[in-house]
Amino acid sequence: MLTMRESALEYLRRGWSVIPLRPRDKRPLLAWQRYQDMRASAEEVSSWWHRQPEANVGVLTGAVSGLVVLDLDGEAGRASVAGMQIPATPIVHTGHGWHYYFAHPGGHVENAVGLLPGVDVRGDGGYVVAPPSIHQSGARYEWLIAPSEVPLAETPDWIVRRDARNVVQARESRPRDNWPDLLRRHVPEGRRNQTLTRIAGYLLRQHGLNHYSALELVFAWNLVYCSPPLSREEVLGIFNSIAAREASRRVRRQMDG
């Protein structure tokens, strides 16, 4: 079996953006947002695991790696997708579920938490824990079908163009009265980045709320409701990434208008 370092370098050779995660954990060991837009060099990757040989391996999803990952949580997730089209593609067995790796279709693919019961989608701005990482339970992430055995299949339409889009649109069209419920909700590991991204985007779209006020609100929400809180550097990285995205959208709308 390849070591963590050897596996990370192999993924990098495949064109995937990789980051080190805490041993037996999903949390990054560094401010990882910059690697959503650029892949680390082989020298950087090698040095990360030289300093921390037991670090788990994270693979960033989205256009930077050309990946979309369907995340099924246990039998509930498997039951949710029963009867849906899932072509042959690389599959990872996680500590308690399965990751299906697909080729990124181009454009922007939203992350989706709770697309269906037990079903998440990791697209642009997301990441997954990859083999041979070790789950906090002690189970090892392992390839059931390795990318060397089967090429990446195209992302099924129901993930990107139909169900996923409906879920995202439904979330964005919820009345603003629902946002206080979200802001008061404790968020466990595995949901913090996604929820903080949503909150940052919502605040940055509000008229009359400047950039720095929105950032302070995000910092405060993280400290009160994340269990455990993300580091200040992680929060800042997420916020800056979303701020850049919103600024780009505003420019595109102005050009289109």
SSE topology:
Blueprint: H1 4-13, E1 18-21, H2 42-51, E2 56-60, E3 67-73, H3 74-80, E4 91-93, E5 97-103, E6 112-116, E7 119-122, E8 127-130, E9 142-145, E10 153-154, H4 157-172, H5 179-183, E11 187-188, H6 192-204, H7 211-225, E12 226-227, H8 232-256
Parallel strand pairs: 5-10, 11-12
Antiparallel strand pairs: 1-2, 2-8, 3-5, 3-7, 4-5, 4-9, 6-7
Q: Could you describe the largest sheet, including whether it forms a barrel? A: 7 strands, mixed
Number of DSSP helices?
Answer: 8
Residue share in helices? Answer: 25-40%
SS class: alpha+beta
Q: Given the C-alpha coordinates, what overall shape results?
A: globular
Topology pattern, helix = H, strand = E: HEHEEHEEEEEEEHHEHHEH
State the end-to-end CA separation.
55 Å
Please state the average pLDDT score.
Answer: 85
Strand content: 15-25%
* Poorly predicted runs: 162-177
Number of separate domains: 2
How many beta-strand elements? 12
Radius of gyration: 18 Å
What would you say this structure looks like, in words?
39% of the residues lie in helices and 19% in strands. By secondary structure, it is of the alpha+beta class. Strands 3, 4, 5, 6, 7, 9 and 10 form a 7-stranded mixed sheet that branches. It has a 3-stranded antiparallel sheet with strand order 1-2-8. It has a two-stranded parallel ribbon with strand order 11-12. The model is unreliable at 162-177 (pLDDT under 50).
